[in-house]
Fold:
Amino acid sequence: MTVRVRVAPSPTGAPHVGTAYVAIFNRAFAHQQKGQFILRIEDTDQERSDPQYEKQIFESLRWLGLTWDEGPDIDGPHGPYRQTERAEIYRAHVRGLVESGMAYPCFCSKERLTEVREAQKAARGTIMYDRRCRTLPSEEVSRLMAAGTPHVVRLAVPLEGEIVMNDLIRGEVRIENRILDDQVLMKADGLPTYHLANVVDDHLMGITHVMRAEEWISSTPKHIHLYRAFGWEAPQFAHLPLLRNHDRSKISKRKNPVSLKWYEEQGYLPEAMVNFLALMGFSMPDGREEFSFDDIRDNFSFARITTGGPVFDLDKLAWLNGVYLRKLSDDELIRRLQDAGLKVEDNAYTRAVAPLVRERMKRLPDFLTVGDYFWNDHLAYDAATLVPKKREAGDTARALESFATLVEGASEDTWNKETLEAAMRAHADSLGWSTKDAFMAIRVAITGKTATPPLVESIVILGRDRSASRLRHAA
Structure:
C-alpha cells in the first residue's frame, strides 16, 4: 500500500496555526513511508471562502517548507483539488446513495427543524433530527420532488448497534448508533456538506490515513457509516490533540494569535515554528526539544504522539526562535532580515553589529530594536539614569567628559576591545570611581539603556567620534 495523506484547509480566513500543525505530521509520515502528501482546498462554504485566503494558505505552508505532492496548483491524477470544482462528482454519488436506500431527501423547513430542537431542549432530550422524512411514503416523496419542494439529502444512519473505531493514536473508540444524527449530505443549494465531500474526496483521492485534530472524533463514526453506505473501505484514522490556550480552552484568535502570516510578519523563523508546533503533539526518543522537520520524519510514529492538550506558549516559542536565530551565520542572518523587509544593509558595519545583537534577539525585528543605538544617534533617556547612586550630577558630568577625551585620544592601534577596556578601567580608577559605576553611566550615555549588548565592543563598533559625541552630550 502506498501511503497517501492530506491536509484540507478551508479558505475562510487567514491560514491557521492548526493547519500547519496537522500538515507537519501528515507530511512527515508520508515522506517517511515514501508516500504522497496532498493539499486539498475545502471551499464549499461559498459565503465565507475567499481566493485571497487560498493564496495565503499556499504562501504560509510554503514558508514553513510544508510543500505538497498534489494540489490545486500541482497537477495530479486525482484532481481537481478544490471542492467547488467537484460539485457534479458529489451529486452523482448522492444520487447513488438515495437510489440504494442508504440516504433520503428531507423536506423539513428551517422553521420545523427549529421547533423540533426547541421541543427536545424543553424535554432535555438529545438534540437531533427526528427522522420524520425517513419514513415518508415513496408517493409523497415523488410528489414533493415533482413540485420542486426545497430539500436536503440525509444519510440513513443505522438505528441500532455501534461503531468501533481503532484510532492509531487513541486506541479503540466506541460510539452507539442511537446517538448519531442522520447527517445532511447535500444542502438545498446542491452543494455538499463537509461530511460528504470529505469522505468522497478521501476515497477518490486514495487517502490511506486521515490524520486530523481531535475535534473531528465525534464526526468520524458518521464518516465510517458513509464509507459503509458506499461500500468502500475506510482509511485509518488518527486524531491529534488540540492546541490549547493557557486556560486549556481550544486555541482561538481571542486569546492567541492564530494566523501563520502574523508569525511570519513578527519575525519568527519557519524552522523554529515547525519545531515548536511539532513539540505540541510529538516528542523525540531522546527527549530533546530542538529538532528539524527531517528529525520528525525520521523518528515519526503514532506512538510518539501525545494525547494531552498541549498549551500554545508564546514565551516558549520566543525562546526557541532565539535559539534558532543564534545558530544563523552572519550571511544567513542578514539574508533573513532583508527577506523580512527590514532595512539592513549587508556591509562591514552590519556584520560587526550582528554578533553583539544576535545573542539578545528573539525575533528578527529585534536586530533593529535591541541594538537600536547602533543605527540611531538621537537617544532618548532620562538624564537621572546617568548618575550612579551616591554620586552627584556634576561629578558624573566631569567623569563623562573625561571619558570622552579618553575615547577621542585613542589611536588606531589601541582601538580594540582589550586595549580600550583596560584604558577605561584604569581611567575610572584614577578618578576614584568603581568600574561598575563608571561603566553604568557610560552605558546609558552610549546606548540610552541600562542593559545592552557588551559595552566596550559597542563603543569600538560605533567609533571614536560617535562615542565621544554621545559622552559629551550626556555630560
User: Anything to note?
Assistant: The longest helix spans residues 17-32.
